Sequence to fold (301 residues):
Amino acid sequence: MNLENPALPAARPRRRASAAARQQRLAALLFLSPACIMVGIYVVWPILSSIFLSFYNWDGMSPREFIGFANYTELFHSHTFYTALKNNVIWLALFLLAPPMGLAVALYLNQAVPGIRIVKSLFFAPFVLSGVVVGLMFSWFYDPTFGLLKVVLGHGIPVLGDARYVTFGIIFAALWPQTAYCMILYLTGLTSLDAEQIEAARMEGAKGWAMLRHVILPQLRPTTFMAIVVTIIGALRSFDLIAVMSGGGPFESSTVLAYYMYDQAIKYYRLGYSAAIAVVLFAIMMVYIVYHLRRMLRQER
Fold:
C-alpha cells in the first residue's frame, strides 16, 4: 500500500472503468459509422443539394445561374402547383384509410383456421406487385369500352378521362397495395402481443370492441405509428400510378407535387424549379412526421 498517497489504489479502478467506457464508446462509434456515412451520403447530402439547387436556374447542361427565391415565387404563383397541392391533400385524406383497413384484414387473418395461409397469400399478393403492374391492371379495369367496371355497371364511365373522377380512381387503385402493406405490419404486431394481458382482460369479461380498444390497440401503438407514417409518405410521394394511369391529365387535373416535380425536370429541363418543388414537398412531409412523432412520444410518456 502506498502510504504517501492512500487514495492511489482507489484511483486505479476508476481509471480502468473510464478506459473501459472509452473503449465501449469507441466500439459503438465504429459500428455506427458505416450507417451514419451512408445516411449522410444518400439522405442528408441529397437534401442539402436540392435546397442549394432550388436557388438556381439550371437545365442540367449549361452553367448554373443564381436567381435567389425566383423559383419559389414562380411556384407559389402557379395554378398547377395549387392543383397538385389540392390533389396531395385528397391523397392524404383518403390514403389514411389504409391503416384501419389493414388492421381489419390483419385481425381477420390472425386466426388459426384451416386454409388461412392460402387466404393470407391472396391478401399479400398486391404488395409484391409493382406500381406499374397495378396501374395497368386498373387502367384496364376502368376502360369504358371493355373494362370490368363497364361489365359490373352495365355502361362505361371514363374514370381516367374525366377530371372529376380521375384522382379518386387512381387513389382507389393505390389503396389496394397500401392496405396489403399495412396488413403485413399489423400481422407482425399481432404476433408480439402480451398474451398475459389478453388473458387477464378475458377473465375480467372484456371481449369484442372493448378488448380491441383497451387491450390490443394500445399494444399496437408503435405499429400504428409506423403504418401512418409510411402511408403519409406514400401519399405525398405518389408518382408511379399517376405516370402510368393518367400522366397527370386530363389537363393536369390529376397531377401531384411528385409528378409535377418530375414533369418540370425531365420534360422541360427545369432542374432548379423542380428542386424548389422537392423542397416544398420535403417540408410538408417533415411537418406531418414530426407532428405524429411528438404525439407518439407524448403518449409514451
Notes: The first strand starts at residue 56 and ends at 57.
